[in-house]
Amino acid sequence: MNYEDLEIWKIANELVLQIHELTLRDIQKFEMYETGSQIRRSVKSVKANIVEGFGRRKYKQDFIRFLVIAQASNDETIDHLKTLFLTKSLTDREKYEKCLSRLMELGKKLNLFISAVERNHRG
Q: CB burial class (10 A; 0-12, 13-18, 19+) of residue 102?
């Protein structure tokens, strides 16, 4: 098994691509280097921490720690997305809602995955 087989990684990867495109095409230009940059970094952090946790999966506490960091980065990404929409830097409601829904889904799946690792990991 590879980290790319994890559903949480697949969703995180999809979100990296969506948010990258969204912040380069659909937000106010001045936000591209402010909140746009922050949201790109936070969503990439979600994916990277899933990968790093998977790489340390032999050690249960390390695996969980990186998954919790991924969860926190997902929450940060949600907050940045909401900020862009509330400040009207992002005005496309459909893209906002689609991204927000997918981030919320990822958060739920991360929570379930963390719980499964806590229950079933033998490291």
A: middle
With 0-12 / 13-18 / 19 or more C-beta atoms within 10 angstroms meaning exposed / middle / buried, residue 12 is buried
Torsion from C-alpha of 89, 91, 92, 95, nearest 10 degrees: 40
Full-model pTM: 0.94
Question: What is the overall mean pLDDT for the chain?
Answer: 95
State how many domains the chain has: 1
Between CA 10 and CA 51 the distance in angstroms is 11
Q: What is the mean pLDDT of residues 56-73?
A: 96
Instruction: Write the CATH number for 60.
Output: 1.20.1440.60
Query: What range defines the domain where residue 28 resides?
Result: 3-120
CA distances from 115 to 2, 8, 68, 118, 120 (A): 20, 14, 11, 5, 9
Asked if residues 94 and 55 have their Cβ atoms less than 8 Å apart, the reply is: no
Task: Give, to the nearest 10 degrees, the angle between helix 7-25 and helix 35-55.
Answer: 160
**CA distance to 26, 70, 79, 85, per residue, from 21 (Å):** 8, 21, 18, 16
